[in-house]
Amino acid sequence: MTTSTDPKPKFAPQIKVPATYMRGGTSKGVFFNLTDLPIEAQEAGAARDALLLRVIGSPDPYGKQTDGMGGATSSTSKTVILAKSDKADHDVDYLFGQVAIDKPFVDWSGNCGNLTAAVGSFAISNGLVDSSRVPENGIAVVQIWQKNIQKTIIAHVPITNGEVQETGDFELDGVTFAAAEVQVEFLAPADGEGAMFPTGNLIDDLAVPTDVVESGVLQATMINAGIPTVFINASELGYNGAELQDAINGDAKALAMFETIRAYGAVQMGLIKHIDEAATRQHTPKVAIVAPPIDYTSSSGKQIAKTDIDLNVRALSMGKLHHAMMGTAAVAIGTAAAIPGTLVQIAASQSLSLSNSASSDSVTFGHPSGTLKVGAEATEVDGNWQVNKVVMSRSARVLMEGWVRVPATAV
Predict the structure, then answer these.
(1) Which is the catalytic residue, given 69, 222, 318, 326?
(2) 69 is catalytic
(3) Is the pTM of this model over 0.70?
(4) Burial 367-400 (b: 16+ CB within 10 A, else e)
(5) Is residue 112 flagged as an active site residue?
(6) Which of 22, 69, 112, 257 is catalytic?
(7) Residue 192: which pLDDT band, with cuts at 50, 70 and 90?
(8) What's residue 293's pLDDT?
């Protein structure tokens, strides 16, 4: 029984913050309206990072995120902050934070293409899109400003009786249940501040330690479209391109090798000055291996025939092989596949027929969970390649909404 003489409580109670837990594509994360965050977390900085780390349950030396909303994988350790946009011709500002699992670190250096599919839905349901732009029935076109990479994304969100339609029959490999299709367009996704190919080359010789490859050199296509990505031929690393997660994630030596490649690639792309800085930039660049199509069995047991795909791609995110494919990496794949002479296009060359000028072709690639089709419009202008738009279909739905609770000391 509490009386007036009882001492002051030793620990402050938890605070609760309005939040929505959503799946977007093959990822899921905690979504916030900027104005719902505690005042000190409404601005970028240590207070915001501390809050999001505690929400997700990081850093967790056990690697489980048991005491938070994270799912202990790069696909499920994610946060999104949305706000009504004051940028002309845009509805909503989208900021993405990739939360490290075992370190006290939130990476703001890139976008999440998968969760982009949920941004339009959240924005409509939470009044961030003007009601005049939402039809009673049909497709709402949501103009998204992606703040991490300063790019425009357009989401086509189905609406039924004035509300977001989440259920449907669209199937996405890597997601168990069908849902409504959301088409996402990434406009001019290449880095606006630099060249799409930072080195100026479609294929580079990437110098790496001899314990990675005996020659100390790997062929690499390094592209900045969607997200900075380093593509390597699977065969150069002893893979066939059809590996599933256990083949790589269960091999500590392989993971260390890929991280080394990522660090050296980041330096050559100009993203960092020294390989030691890669540890503070875990979200970017991505590393992916590419290979011509072969038959394989996906992680769900689905049979993928080489005639179903144009090439195989396996990509790593936050130090682990992704269970499907990151949406931003799919943008990079689609873009590179549309440009003759990249490792991606060469791997797919038996299936693709591309010209040296404009291309609006699509490419279908195999990943650990199945297949994904992505289309890109790329054009060569005065010897330089530009990508105008990359399009893919995803799905999204609300998993839970209400409040997330964190100790007051976390903010």
Answers:
(1) 326
(2) no
(3) yes
(4) bbbbbbebbbbbeeeeeebbbebbbbbbbbbbee
(5) yes
(6) 112
(7) low
(8) 97
